[in-house]
Amino acid sequence: MSTTQIHVTGGGDYLVNIGRGMLADPEPFFGPIFGPAVNKVLIIHPPTMGAIANKLREQLMGEREVLLAEVPDAENAKRVEVAAFCWQVLGQADFTRSDAIIGLGGGAVTDLAGFVAATWLRGVKLIQVPTTVLAMVDASVGGKTGINTAEGKNLVGSFYAPHAVVCDLDVLEKLPRNELLAGFAEVVKCGFIAEPEILDILEADVDVATDPTSTEFQRLIELSVGIKARVVSEDFTEQGQREILNYGHTLGHAIEHAERYTWRHGAAISIGMVFAAELSRMTQNLPDEVVDRHRRILESLTLPTTYGAEAWEHLLTTMKRDKKARGSMLRFVVLRDIGQPTILNVPDTSILFTAYQELTA
Ligand SMILES: NC(=O)c1ccc[n+]([C@@H]2O[C@H](COP(=O)([O-])OP(=O)(O)OC[C@H]3O[C@@H](n4cnc5c(N)ncnc54)[C@H](O)[C@@H]3O)[C@@H](O)[C@H]2O)c1
Ligand SMILES: O=C(O)C(=O)C[C@@H](O)[C@H](O)[C@H](O)COP(=O)(O)O
Ligand SMILES: [Zn+2]
């Protein structure tokens, strides 16, 4: 299968390369981006990607000096202490404005590496190399970078577009099945907000659709990146349209916070999407069949669709810190129908509690 290139213009002008074998022969994808100006490259990676990071380092060495920064796994990477560690490595190795960073890992690492690239000397070149489904279809594209604070998810960050994204599907070979399926929550999100073909492919045969060696799998990655690319190219800094990518995230982020970031992001937004669908049924007349379709598809991916009744007050408090909130007004992405997202302003939270009761087991 050949490499597909998807062009993104928001915040810059770059390509998302989707294919196989790219990391076996990386120079054609990295060399032209680095050009002669890049003398030093820092690869930021989690422990699970140590072997691949080492190999990439050896392959890119020669034309430039390549260093590695191993950071804590998963959400533990998205902490200010870890960003400070990366700044220290860059400082001690005398990285200048003409040097570059590679984010090699899942969404946690691409969010961190993006933030470090945006802030080091106020911005150096960045190539994202996503290694999970979630990072391929969502986190590595579009330039939302950031870290968490004790109060909530992604509360500190910047909009900083990468200079290229390299999605080599071969790296998914060792991705644990539960991680792979969690990433599909963002694929399902793209299906409901903008691309019904995604839902049809998943419903036709979920095992084939989630087999990383199938053509259907690559098609799903391409369709999802296509949606993300279109939205962020139109509204890079989230002045309006981009908010649709937050479907399911208002409750989802609150669940991640309540679970102290031990849950997969995809699992949390799976529940968040069912909540948003219930809210859509109550306020936008979203047909029952579409709400049921959310549950059916997410459950076919073994993703959770219920959450504990006792958690409500805590979740509501956390949701008030959501970036879409304006003053005391909570705002949610809801659906009028498949492919027709809109924003719901919620001055009175009682309606949220009613929708939430549909989720409690
Ligand atoms: N910036 C954005 O637009 C955006 C979009 C969606 C999600 N996110 C963020 O992405 C994060 C979630 O990303 P994620 O689901 O990729 O989780 P993750 O980065 O925590 O990775 C999940 C796990 O898989 C391991 N792993 C990664 N690649 C692997 C591989 N190829 N083989 C084996 N193990 C591998 C990691 O070490 C980790 O343990 C969240 O912090 C979320 O907020 C950001
Ligand atoms: O790219 C976007 O815009 C998104 O909202 C994509 C989300 O899937 C992603 O989880 C993002 O990190 C959420 O951002 P936040 O602004 O709600 O923190
Ligand atoms: Zn997300």
Automatic annotation (TrEMBL):
Which residues are listed for Zn(2+) binding in this entry?
Answer: E186, H249, H265
A Pfam family this protein belongs to? Answer: DHQ_synthase
- InterPro entries for the chain: Dehydroquinate_synthase (IPR050071), DHQ_synth_AroB (IPR016037), DHQ_synth_fam (IPR030963), DHQS/DOIS_N (IPR030960), DHQS_C (IPR056179)
- Point out the coiled-coil segments of this chain: none
Which residues does the record give as NAD(+) binding sites?
A: 73-78, 107-111, 131-132, 144, 153
Q: Which reaction does it catalyse?
A: 7-phospho-2-dehydro-3-deoxy-D-arabino-heptonate = 3-dehydroquinate + phosphate
Q: Where is the signal peptide?
A: none
CDD domains associated with the record: DHQS
The similarity comment for this entry is: Belongs to the sugar phosphate cyclases superfamily. Dehydroquinate synthase family.
Q: Which organism is it from?
A: Aurantimicrobium photophilum
Residues annotated as domain 3-dehydroquinate synthase N-terminal: 70-180
Its Enzyme Commission number(s) read 4.2.3.4
Q: Name one GO molecular function term.
A: nucleotide binding
Per UniProt, the keywords (alphabetical) are:
Amino-acid biosynthesis, Aromatic amino acid biosynthesis, Cobalt, Cytoplasm, Lyase, Metal-binding, NAD, Nucleotide-binding, Zinc
According to its UniProt entry, the function of this protein is described as:
Catalyzes the conversion of 3-deoxy-D-arabino-heptulosonate 7-phosphate (DAHP) to dehydroquinate (DHQ).
- Write down the required cofactor(s): Co(2+); Zn(2+); NAD(+)
Quote a single Gene Ontology cellular component term. Answer: cytoplasm
Pathway, per Swiss-Prot/TrEMBL?
A: Metabolic intermediate biosynthesis; chorismate biosynthesis; chorismate from D-erythrose 4-phosphate and phosphoenolpyruvate: step 2/7
* Occurrences of domain 3-dehydroquinate synthase C-terminal (ranges): 183-325
This one is known as: 3-dehydroquinate synthase
**Chief location bin:** cytoplasm
**Cofactor annotation remark:** Binds 1 divalent metal cation per subunit. Can use either Co(2+) or Zn(2+).
Question: NCBIfam families annotated for this entry?
Answer: aroB
One biological process term from GO is:
aromatic amino acid family biosynthetic process
Q: So which domain of life are we looking at?
A: Bacteria
